[in-house]
Structures are given as structure tokens and as C-alpha cells.
Amino acid sequence: VCPVENAEPLLYFSTDTNMRPEKIIGFYRTRFQIEFGIRDAKQFTGLQSQQTRDRERLDFAFNLSFTALNVCKEVIRKDYPDLSVAQFKRLMFESYLASTIISTCGKSPHLKIIQKINHRLAQLAA
């Protein structure tokens, strides 16, 4: 049993009756970090889109997907703490789309305009 402030106590289970409660909680935390990481990699960085069976290509795809996810989470943590991974992905896509539309019109996208667009998109995404 793990007491939680202002909430009902949580129950954690283990088949090892000699294991310390802190270690059990640590295992649970690690397990859920792994599960959420895999879920996010599947949903947001294309982990489940791979069709290859070659081990080296799969290793590359996994590394690329998890690296992209870690970079994404770090940028969110530093610059967009109010956004989820899904909102951040949408923000990046919309920013890219806005830049593409501007450049397709024959205009060179001015950095300040792009920054204004990105700022406004971030406000809309939050």
C-alpha cells in the first residue's frame, strides 16, 4: 500500500514478498515509462509503419522513431510546456504547411513572419 496525499492509497503487487516497496514502485514507474514511450512512438513518429523484416533496417527505424520522440519531448519541455505530443506534432505540421504555402506563392518566407505564424499556431494549439 502506497499512501498518496489527498487521495486514496494505491496498491502495488509483486510476487516477491521480500522486495522493498520503493523498489516495487520503481519497477512500476519504469514499466509505464516504457509503455508510454512505445505508445507515443507508435502514434506520433511512425514506429508501427515499418514493413521491413530486415534486422538492421528495423534497428534503424526503432532508433529513428525513439530519437525523434525524445527530441520532440525535449522541445516541448523547453519551449511549449502546455502542449501534448499530438498538439506539438500538429503545430509542426501547420508551421511547415504555412511555410510551404508562402514559398509556393513565389515569396521568400521572412523569418519574422514565420515566427509570428508559429507563435500564433502555438496559441491555437494550446
Task: Give me some keywords for this one.
4 helices; 2 domains; mainly alpha; single chain; 126 residues; flat
Q: Enumerate the spans where pLDDT stays under 50 for 5 or more consecutive residues.
A: none
How many helices in DSSP terms? 4
End-to-end separation in angstroms reads 37 Å
Succession of helices and strands: HHHH
Strand content: under 5%
Task: Name the overall outline.
Answer: flat
What features would you describe in this structure?
The structure is a single chain. With 126 residues, this protein is mostly helical. The chain has helices spanning 21-44, 55-79, 85-104, 111-125. It has two domains: 1-79, no CATH class; 82-126. The chain has four helices and no strands.
Write the layout of secondary structure elements.
Elements: H1 21-44, H2 55-79, H3 85-104, H4 111-125
Helix pairs in contact: 1-2, 3-4
Question: Brief description of this entry?
Answer:
The longest helix is centred in the middle third of the chain and has 25 residues, at 55-79.
